[in-house]
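Appendix B, record 7
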Amino acid sequence: MLKWHSLSVVDVLGAWQAFVNVSERGSFTQGAAATRVPQSVASRRIAALERHLGERLFDRSSRRATLTQFGRDMLPSAKRLVLLAETMEHEAERARLNPLRLAVPAICTVRDLARLDAEAREKGVHLDFHAAPPAERAELARSREVRAALTAVPPGDGTWSVPLGLAGATRPPAGTVYVETLRPGRATRSSRRSRIWIQPEDDVPHIRDPLFRIRDATGLQPAQVAVSATLTAATAEVLGSADLLLCSRRQAGELELHWRPIGEIDPVRGFDVSAAVGDDAQRLRTLLWTEIARCLGADDRDGTAP
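C-alpha cells (predicted):
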C-alpha cells in the first residue's frame, strides 16, 4: 500500500488534477493553466506522484506531454478522483451557504434582524429567521423544526440579559416607578385604574410571577397586572391612558414611551441559544455575540429613555 509521506491530502488531489489536465491538453503549460497553478508547480506535483507511484506517467522524450502506458492505465481512476473532489467541493459550498434557520423573539425589529443577517454573512453564516414567542421558540428547537433558537431563560442561566422597566405615554415625576403607587385610593375608587401590561415575550415565569406577587402584596386588583395578547395591543392601551408597559429601555425608545426602572424588583430578560447540534449553538454565541446582543437590546446601558 502506497503512503504519501511528503504530500498532504490536498497536495495529492492537486497533483492528480494537474495530471488529468496535462494529459487532456498534451501540454504542461496548458494543463497548469487549467489547474490554475504555475507550470513549475504542476511539474513538481506530477513528479512527486511519479516518485510515490514508482513509475513514469509521462514520456518526456517528446515535446508534447505524452502519456506512458502506466499513465494511460491510471488516467480513468484519476478522472474519477478529480470529479469526486470537485463534487465534494460543490457540496461543501452548498452546505456552507445553507441558511441556519433561527427562531428569534418577535420583539426583534426588522432593521436589527437585517443588520444581524448582513453581519452574519460577512462571517460565513447565513441565517433564516423565524419570529415566535418564548414557548414556541423552545418547542421549535426541541422538535428540530429550526436548527437553533434564542430561548428565554432566567438571567443567571443566559448568555444575554436585558433589564426591564415600566414605560408610559407621559413622563413620570420620579426616576423610579413603584408598583404600589398604582394601588387605588378612596378618591380614585370610581376612576379607571392604571394597569401594567406584560407583553407576550415576557409571559415567562421568571418575569411574570414576581410581578404578580408584587401586585398581590401591594393590594392591586388582579386585572391591574395583565398579560396582553400582542405587543401592539398593549402599546395601544398605554398610548391612550396612564397604563404602563413592561419593556426594555430600547423598546420604550422605539415606541416613544418614557421608561423608568421598577422600585420593588429588577426584572430581566435572559436569552440563550438552544440547538440540536451543539456546534451551531457555540458558533452563534462566539461569532455573533455582539450582533445578537444588539438585536435583543442587551447592548443598552442602564438608564432612562426620553
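Remarks on this record: The chain has two domains: 9-96, 100-306. Residues 1-5, 301-306 have pLDDT under 50 and may be disordered.
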